[in-house]
Specification:
The chain is α/β, with parallel strands linked by helices. It has three domains: about 200 residues, Tetratricopeptide repeat domain (Serine Threonine Protein Phosphatase 5, Tetratricopeptide repeat); about 140 residues, Rossmann fold (3-Layer(aba) Sandwich), CATH 3.40.50.11380; about 170 residues, Rossmann fold (3-Layer(aba) Sandwich). It is about 50% helix and about 10% strand. It is built from 30 helices and 13 strands. The strands form two sheets. It has a seven-stranded parallel sheet with strand order 3-2-1-4-5-6-7, with helices on one face. Helix 22 links the parallel strand 8 and strand 9. Helix 4 packs antiparallel against helix 5, helix 5 runs antiparallel to helix 6 and helix 22 runs parallel beside helix 27. The termini are far apart.
């Protein structure tokens, strides 16, 4: 330690004009003849401190050096010189002076704390922990070593210990902003959003205008479905920082999640103009594309053009198609890869699971490329299926592409489209000869490197939507998806339909689909069905301010509060389905139809009334109902939708038949026939592959007959 060069830290214009061979001790001896008065020492301390505060670090170091020529063990001089070297980025020299301070002043915790900081920066985490522990032992009420120890524990991925350290720091200093920020972040990463909100609320009591705290609490509240509270904090922060990208993004998400798609699109567009990198810009554009589907304000042509613009900005049109081994063997076993962030408790997982379980292992080798950020029990269940599992959550697109090429994938299937955490940039690299999009997104991707999109003749009738797609449409027989009911679903509940009791309409759809325009239509139904109630159940209705917004819409339409029941999420699937079975008629949303909720309602004996539009997203309900043999519940106009719901409510015998027969109708439908659905899917894959092997570059429409 005594041989640490004084000038190791400084170079170029920052170099002190001292001989580079001098060490600390020899330098002191060389200048020991200098004489200074106490007043001069105090002036040098003040001078060095002021220079540090002004960011003139090299001059501050010079002043501190001069101070130490008079008093070799001056405490302030050692501290100031260590700080100056640290500010100059010269960790080794700074560490020398802080360590020297520990030797000379073993009872002062500040030197141990600062030494620990330098050890952490040097990657010597165990030594840093020892230094912080020593500082705490010297002064148990000193909050900074606790905070810094939390940083080290965070570096070591010891989250529980880091949380403890930050909490301890806040006990000792309730005004330490960084501890609030870091503690809340860790709690959110642990999916303990309620605890994170509590932490941020405490921080905001001390710092009510801190943008980071306001942004963080808005994000955590959004995760909890408390969208009204999230918007309140977000708007408060935007008053202070109107051009903050993160705040605009959070506001956009909370807006679209509560049925305000137009406002969401505006927020995302503004955030996109402010985004400082292409990745953020792409994700914001993804949000725009998704949100546009939740309102009738955008035409299909407008939405299609936005997808093409996304591709122009973020997807290269120049790619090289890989040539797999045995490319000239059209009948050989195929290697199919599915890419998704939703191999977890998500509707996509529930629809893909029966397919993964039903693939013919003799003719197909199945790979799942999982971009899952929060694996759960569903993730674990999927991994037990006869598939090859690849976790790509930490891989770059280039690394993923290389992995897929090395796996020899023939057909790569995107299951996310433009939804959250998608890997569309991976598909633009064309890592497989054939690429398909399916299931997780109700529209084109706009990506030229993706060859096909699966649908059916109802969701995408021939001649209706082709011009909106960059992909070739492959229309599968029956519906474009396959449903597997939850194993623990309760029996269909008895309902006294033949009595004069009031009926209950229901919507269990995503709250994003429940727009004011949608509610106005439902209000008209209630006006025509005396004493009927409407149960709206959705994640997000835990928030009283959002419930009040919805009640106010119905009130304006003449519907009193007691006729609209608003409920948030239930603790599990069993309670969710049990509650659904206590309703009589499910009202589908439009323009964005339900999918999982429609299947669940039918399974519980509840008929669903839907409105069929002119886009895939508005025709999913019709596709599902047709596959079960319920085309009579599909309306073609808004007035017909209203009339269907009203007339069904008046026909108690028909409701009783649906209650009795719907589950058997589903069991006997193509919607639940996973084996047949998967054979049709595999035949479509085989047709694609044969065409590719024959080098048929024409992208001719695959008809239902060809698919089979």
């Amino acid at each position: 330690m005594n041989g640490c060069p004084l000038l190791i830290a400084l170079s170029g214009k920052n170099r002190l004009y001292l001989h580079p061979s001098h060490t600390y001790n020899t330098f002191l001896l060389h200048l020991s003849g200098s004489h200074m008065q106490e007043e001069q020492i105090e002036n040098l301390i003040l001078r060095s401190t002021q220079l540090l505060e002004k960011g003139r670090f090299a001059e501050a170091a010079s002043a501190a050096h001069l101070l130490l020529t008079r008093d070799q063990v001056n405490r302030e001089g050692l501290q100031l010189l260590g700080n100056a070297y640290h500010a100059l980025g010269e960790t080794e020299a700074a560490l020398y002076f802080f360590s020297r301070g520990c030797e000379l002043y073993p009872g002062i915790p500040l030197f141990q704390n600062n030494r620990g900081l330098l050890l952490r920066e040097s990657g010597r985490l165990s030594e840093a922990l020892e230094a912080f522990a020593a500082a705490i032992a010297l002064n148990p009420d000193y909050y900074l070593p606790w905070y810094n120890m939390g940083l080290v524990r965070q570096d070591q991925q010891s989250v529980t210990e880091a949380i403890h350290c930050y909490k301890k720091a806040l006990q000792l200093n309730p005004r330490h902003l960084a501890s609030y920020t870091n503690l809340g972040l860790l709690q959110a990463q642990q999916v303990d959003f309620a605890a994170a909100v509590e932490t941020y609320e405490q921080g905001l009591k001390a710092y009510p205008d801190d943008i980071k705290l306001l942004s963080s609490i808005s994000s955590a509240l959004t995760e909890l479905g408390l969208y009204g509270k999230a918007l309140a904090y977000c708007n408060r922060a935007l008053m202070l920082a109107p051009d903050q990208t993160e705040l605009l993004t959070i506001k956009g998400i909370a807006s679209y999640k509560t049925g305000k798609a137009l406002e969401a699109v505006q927020c995302f567009r503004k955030a996109m103009t402010l985004a400082d990198d292409s990745v953020s810009g792409r994700r914001l554009y993804d949000n725009i594309l998704l949100a546009m589907h939740y309102t009738n304000r955008y035409s299909a042509d407008e939405i299609a053009e936005e997808h093409r613009q996304w591709a122009r900005l973020f997807a290269s049109s120049h790619f090289r198609t890989p040539i797999p081994a045995k490319a000239d063997e059209p009948q050989r076993p195929l290697q199919v890869g599915y890419v998704s962030p939703d191999f977890c408790a998500h509707p996509v997982a529930f629809f893909i699971e029966p397919i993964l379980a039903s693939h013919d292992q003799a003719s197909h080798k199945i790979f799942c490329y999982a971009n899952v950020s929060r694996p759960d029990s569903i993730t674990a269940q999927l991994q037990l299926l006869p598939i090859v599992w690849r976790d790509i959550s930490s891989l770059t697109d280039a690394e993923c592409a290389e992995l897929i090429k090395n796996d020899g994938i023939d057909i790569l299937v995107d299951l996310a489209g433009h939804t959250c955490q998608n890997r569309l940039p991976l598909f633009t690299l064309k890592p497989a000869p054939l690429q398909v999009t399916w299931l997780g997104y109700p529209d084109t991707t706009g990506v030229a490197a993706i060859d096909y999109r699966f649908s059916d003749v109802v969701a995408d009738p021939v001649g209706m939507t082709e011009r909106h797609h960059s992909e070739e449409l492959v229309r599968l027989p029956g519906a474009f998806l396959c449903f597997r009911p939850p194993a623990n679903a309760p029996a269909v509940a008895e309902r006294e339909h033949l009595t004069a009791r009031p009926l209950t309409f229901s919507s269990f759809n995503n709250l994003a689909k429940v727009s004011p325009e949608m509610m106005a239509v439902w209000a008209n139904i209630l006006l025509q069905v005396a004493d009927a109630t409407l149960l709206i159940k959705a994640f997000g209705l835990e928030d009283e301010s959002i419930r009040e917004e919805i009640r106010s819409v119905f009130r304006a339409c003449g519907i009193p509060d007691e006729r609209v029941i608003l409920l948030g999420r239930t603790p599990n699937v069993l309670s969710h389905l049990t509650m659904l079975s206590q309703t009589d008629i499910a009202l589908d949303t439009f323009p964005y139809n339900g999918t999982t909720t429609t299947c669940e309602a039918l399974w519980m004996g509840v008929p669903v009334v839907t409105l069929s539009g002119s886009t895939h997203v508005s025709r999913v309900g019709a596709s599902i109902l047709r596959s079960v043999g319920l085309s009579e519940l599909v309306a073609q106009t808004e007035n017909e939708y209203l009339e269907l719901a009203v007339q069904l409510a008046k026909n108690r015998e028909r409701l009783a038949r649906y209650r009795r027969d719907l589950r058997n109708m589903m069991l006997n439908s193509t919607l639940l026939d996973a084996a047949t659905f998967t054979r049709n899917l595999e035949q479509a894959y085989r047709t694609m592959w044969r065409r590719w092997c024959s080098q048929d570059s024409g992208r001719n429409l695959i008809t239902p007959d060809q698919a089979v």
